[in-house]
Write a structure and sequence with these properties.
This protein has 7 helices and 11 strands. The chain is α/β, with parallel strands linked by helices and 227 residues long. It is globular.
């Protein structure tokens, strides 16, 4: 990436990087993982962005509030890109939703750190699956009222998660009236173009597609698809 294209990403890094590093862990998926204590908050970071309980946590707080998720009939939830449980924490503990959660996370290091520092075992009615999101959604055994897509390798969404095949498979896993939330971080011009293409692909499906923009140092576009 050209330096000027990641100025916003650098601002975000400066915002969350200050703090005491509790543990560093090498990762075949994410290169390096860090558990950082910033004030009273534990964060999980990759080399260039926040994975859990930092900026992206605040993004989903704002999105769930804007769509008034507590008024939806959410009984079964699928989280692709579980991290160390940011979205599950918001849904279950901050918003008080009584929903079952299936969580998919590819990086075993993330899962290990989640248990060790973030007490992910505390959740009831939560099934965590170590798997690639693309492979899981292609053969997912269940159907869901809410699917949250927050799949990142460092600061990038894998290209395999932005294909039409992946999007169609998301739709196949929705219950009637269900909803997909797909998070895309806009850190440069290319990422912005990818977000526009992603939105166009969702709009080819029967149903309603909309976008919520949230800025936490860098812009996040959350694409919302409703059957």
């Amino acid at each position: 990436m050209v330096k000027k294209e990641i100025s916003g990403l650098k601002r975000m890094l400066e915002k969350f990087a200050s703090g005491h590093v509790i543990e560093k862990l090498g990762s075949e998926v994410s290169n390096m993982l860090e558990v950082v204590k910033a004030g009273d908050t534990l964060l999980l970071n990759s080399p260039n962005t926040n994975y859990s309980f930092g900026a992206l946590h605040r993004v989903f707080r704002k999105v769930f509030k804007k769509i008034d998720i507590r008024e939806k009939q959410i009984r079964d939830t699928l989280i692709l890109g579980f991290g160390t449980g940011s979205v599950a924490t918001i849904l279950r503990e901050e918003l008080g939703l009584d929903c079952s959660i299936t969580a998919v996370e590819k990086d075993p290091g993330v899962l290990m750190l989640g248990k060790k520092y973030f007490n992910t075992d505390r959740f009831t009615d939560l099934k965590i699956i170590e798997a690639d999101a693309v492979k899981f959604i292609a053969t997912a055994p269940g159907s869901y009222d809410l699917i949250v897509v927050d799949v990142y390798i460092d600061f990038e969404v894998p290209a395999s998660c932005e294909t039409m095949e992946f999007i169609i498979n998301l739709k196949k896993c929705l219950k009637p009236g269900g909803m997909v939330l797909f998070n895309k971080m806009i850190y440069n011009h290319k990422a912005g173009e990818e977000a526009e293409e992603l939105e166009k692909k969702f709009k080819t499906l029967d149903g309603k597609t909309s976008v919520i923009k949230v800025r936490e140092s860098v812009l996040n576009k959350v694409i919302i698809y409703e059957e």
